[in-house]
Structures are given as C-alpha cells and as structure tokens.
Design brief:
By secondary structure, this protein is mainly beta. The chain is 9% helix and 58% strand. Keywords: Signal.
Length: 222
C-alpha cells in the first residue's frame, strides 16, 4: 500500500482551502491518479491429475489510472474508469503453498459506474457511492517452470488462459474541491468476479478473484 499512501499524502498537501466549486448537472470532469488492485482470492482446486488441494494465490499491483465523468443531475453522475494493464503474479497455495511463482497475467478492468453524490453541488466535501459493471480482460498469461513441474512433469511447458468476465462493482469515495476547476478524489471499489483458468495440460481451475481497488487522483472540471 506504500504507493497509494504516498499518493494520498500528496493529494492532501494539494487540497488547500481555496473555496468550493459546484460540480453540477451538465458538467464533464477528467481525473488522473494511481490505483492499487488487490485480489481477494478464493481458489478452487486444479482438476486431476494435479495433487488434491492444489490452489492459487494472486499478488496485488499498482498502476496509473484515469477516468471521465458526466453529471447527469446535481447529484447523479456517470463515470468511466480506465487505466494501464495491471500485472499480477500467481503463486502456489493450498497443497502447493511455498512453491513460489507459478506465472504472471495482465488484467485490464475498464469500469462503468453510476454515482450518487451527497450534499449540494457547491459543497467543498462531497462523499459519493456508486454501482456498475467491470469487464475483466486478461492477457499475456505466462507460466513458469514450477507450473509445468506441478501440472505436467516431463511434458511441454504448461501455458494457461484466464477467461474474460463481466463483474458487478460497488464504489464509495470522497471528493474535495480545491478551487473552481481542480479537485482531489479518493475512492474504493469492490468487484465480485468469478472466472475459470484453462491449462494446456488439460486441467482447469475455478477461482474467485473479488478484487478490491483503492485509488487517489486529481481531477479537472470542464
């Protein structure tokens, strides 16, 4: 969480009290920042002939992100969140915990949200909640030698593919208006994502990822 913590501190320093600004109906905003994705993994077992209880754990990653939003009313906004692909490392868990790195995968999770912003448009602090969908797109899956040793000893290098999925997402955040055009934003998103992994060795694995996202950013009102 160190990268996100530093970004939060930077946003706080910039957020000097220079007067609130309305974020009202018909207004566009753009925001850039950083986000950390942490999968909350509930791993199923890799199918036979893998060792019973063969599971996976997945590491977090931090990348730049950007978003665009449009205020439908004074309190309701639509937001599209985009960013650079996140690179996650896969590790052995369960019966194979401690075997180390099994591979890597890149994830691109564009998210569309409808938000409700509390208080009046001229308020300096505006908490908000949101709900929407995330499309989890996976690419560049790369297996390690350990993955091959576990899944198909003596066979060719094992590759794998993670299925792309659509997930429901919930959001909570806070906007701090710095001046008439600039604002700071911190947000939390929880997605409910289940997917499936197919291995070239013929095995499969169901896995619940349920990623949590913490982001901080600086935005501009048009």
């Amino acid at each position: 969480m160190s990268s996100v913590g530093k970004a939060v501190a930077a946003a706080a320093v910039m957020a000097v009290a220079s007067g609130a600004s309305a974020q009202s109906a018909g207004q566009w905003t753009a925001k850039v920042g950083v986000a950390e994705i942490t999968p909350k993994v509930k791993s199923g077992d890799v199918s036979a002939p893998a060792l019973p209880g063969t599971k996976a754990a997945i590491g977090s990653d931090t990348k730049p992100v950007f978003s665009f939003a449009y205020s439908l009313t004074d309190n309701v906004s639509a937001e599209l969140d985009l960013g650079m692909p996140f690179k996650h490392t896969l590790y052995g868990d369960g019966a194979i915990k401690g075997t180390g790195k099994l591979g890597t995968v890149k994830a691109l999770p564009p998210t569309f949200l409808v938000q409700y912003r509390f208080f009046k448009p001229e308020a300096m602090l505006r908490p908000y909640v949101g709900a929407g969908v995330t499309y989890a797109y996976f690419a560049k899956e790369t297996g390690s030698g350990r993955l091959t040793a576990i899944s198909d000893i003596g066979g060719p290098a094992t590759t794998f593919k993670v299925k792309n999925k659509l997930a429901t997402s919930l959001q909570a955040g806070l906007v701090y208006n710095i001046n008439e055009r600039w604002f700071a934003d911190v947000a939390y998103i929880k997605s409910f994502l289940k997917t499936k992994v197919d291995f070239s060795s013929g095995q499969t694995q169901d896995i619940t990822l349920d990623p949590q996202v913490i982001s901080v950013g600086i935005g501009y009102k048009f």
